[in-house]
Amino acid sequence: MIKNSVGIVLKRFPYSETSLIARCFVKDLGKVSFLVHGAHRKKSPMSAYFQPANSLNLVFYFKESRELQTISKASFNHSWSNISKDLKKISYAMAMIELTDKCLTDNDSHNNLYNALLSSLKEVENSNNQLNLTYWHYQYSLLAFLGFKPDLNQSELDFVPLPNPFEGPNSKEIFNYFDLGEIEKNKIFKITGKDRKVISTYLNTCLGIHFEGVKNLKSLKILREILSN
């Protein structure tokens, strides 16, 4: 069956001398792996399309019983010209992409989460202010849309103690905004060092309880190194 959809590239792997496998978050289908024939050929545009975080229009052959689907056509749905030129923006985008890849299961559609990821990438592309807020908001949205919305009044979860999410001077206001859904564009929060530690620790603790492997995200380590310099 031929399908048309949009997708965000999560990861790619080499496959033979001329092709690659691309894992994508497809809006209608969830996480899907594609065989992209000829992507390593010099004149093929496919290699440029299937880079992590790229937002694509996809035409592909889909058969539910197959592990690898086959790409027919691809084109850019959104381009990230600012992200590609800024190491900090790249790091935030890759952290969201790697987190999504770790938390999604194959062929399980989550339209709301897809929209949240695309919106967050657009925010990283177009804004230079408080990108950490965009990243935290996406972490919170991912938990909520995958069925693990944080209960900010809980002191423990699955017998694991939870840090106090309201311990920062402004963290309660920030979490309240996350709870409302979309953050008001251009709103600037006062974020102290204490707020950063409290919000980050709380969200990462919740994610670590529900999903394996999220504590060791390579992109997050790189991001921390950049922000510490």
Rg, please? 18 Å
The helix tally amounts to 7
**Could you name the ranges where pLDDT drops below 50 across 5 or more consecutive residues?**
none
How far is it from the N-terminal to the C-terminal residue, by CA? 50 Å
Q: Which band does the percent of strand residues land in?
A: 15-25%
Spatially, the strands of the biggest sheet line up as 1-2-3-5-4
CATH class of the largest domain: Mainly Alpha
CATH superfamily of the largest domain: Recombination protein O, C-terminal domain
Average pLDDT for all residues: 90
CATH fold group of the largest domain: de novo design (two linked rop proteins)
Largest sheet: 5 strands, mixed, barrel
Kindly list the characteristics that best describe this protein.
five-stranded mixed barrel; 22% strand; alpha+beta; two-stranded antiparallel sheet; 2 domains; OB fold (Dihydrolipoamide Acetyltransferase, E2P)
Question: What can you see in these coordinates?
Answer:
It is a single chain. By secondary structure, the chain is of the alpha+beta class. It has two domains: 2-78, Nucleic acid-binding proteins (OB fold (Dihydrolipoamide Acetyltransferase, E2P)); 83-228, de novo design (two linked rop proteins) (Up-down Bundle), CATH 1.20.1440.120. It contains seven helices and seven strands. The strands form two sheets. A five-stranded mixed beta barrel has the order 1-2-3-5-4. Strands 6-7 form a two-stranded antiparallel sheet. Helix 3 runs antiparallel to helix 4 (131-145). The longest helix is centred in the last third of the chain and has 18 residues, at 193-210. The chain is globular. The mean pLDDT is 90.
